[in-house]
Amino acid sequence: MIDDDNSYLADFRARLDLPGIIDVHTHFMPERVLSKVWSYFDSVGPLTGRSWPIAYREDEQVRLKTLRDFGVRAFTSLVYPHKPEMAAWLNDWTAEFAARTPECLHTATFYPEPGAADYVATALERGARVFKVHIQVGDFPPGDPLLTPVWGLLEDAGVPALIHCGSGPAPGRFTGPEPIAELLRRFPRLKLIVAHMGTPEYAQFLDLAERHDGVYLDTTMVWTDFSEADAPFPVAEYGRVREYGERILFGSDFPNIPYSYGHAIQALERLELGDDWVGQVCYRNAVDLFSLS
């Protein structure tokens, strides 16, 4: 593990000649929502036999300063509803958060419900640049008919959805690669960022990236000591990880991680896929995808 994240990350950026780090998988939410998320993680130990201490359980301004001190130059405010009539007001909050947080990639979300297309259209008009979808928590199929117009709007706008659709850490009724493969058959131009590299179905989601140019994967928690203990990434797939390096994006899950932020970068470096690959993943790919200056 790393003794001093700030020093390690400053050295990392200097060695790779990076202006900063872009983190596509960070969570900023209304405080009462985030407190419920933290309560869930506090209960994970009794549920699974494995504790999940929140490493960055601080108030919002401290968390923002922490990311800035780490050299993170752009990040998301991933929110996700677990029931109807929640997504629209979450989108109101994320729009306000993005307006007062220059580094934030304006994030929005949706849920299969009447009116979803209307509030997604509103979010796009407001400037949303990425949408968060959580198939496991939301407990809905991505192919739900109520979402047909939503996926069409995102496909036409070229705005990606960052989607938790793998079956880790616990499978849901609609998780796994098959529902996503069907979604991409219906919307072949859709841009999707598969969270956590699709854990634990890593190979199957790499298959989808091989077939669809609009499929990206984020590294969130993958290759860390914490994740390797439960869902190790198959070494046999390292070749494709290198091959599709232009469509892999760094994500951390900050602040809801049970280890230091620097360890997520360290986990990528120790793959020994080369500085160019790590630089793409941690900065250049997101610059290209989100047209950042």
From TrEMBL:
GO terms, molecular function: carboxy-lyase activity; hydrolase activity
InterPro entries associated with the record: ACMSD (IPR032465), Amidohydro-rel (IPR006680), Metal_Hydrolase (IPR032466)
Alphabetical GO biological process terms: secondary metabolic process
Domain of life, source organism: Bacteria
Pfam families xref list: Amidohydro_2
Record's GO cellular component terms: cytoplasm
UniProt-listed CDD domains: metallo-dependent_hydrolases
Domain Amidohydrolase-related: 22-291
Keywords assigned by UniProt, alphabetized: Lyase
Protein name: Amidohydrolase-related domain-containing protein
Native source species: Nocardia amikacinitolerans
Origin organism lineage: Bacteria, Bacillati, Actinomycetota, Actinomycetes, Mycobacteriales
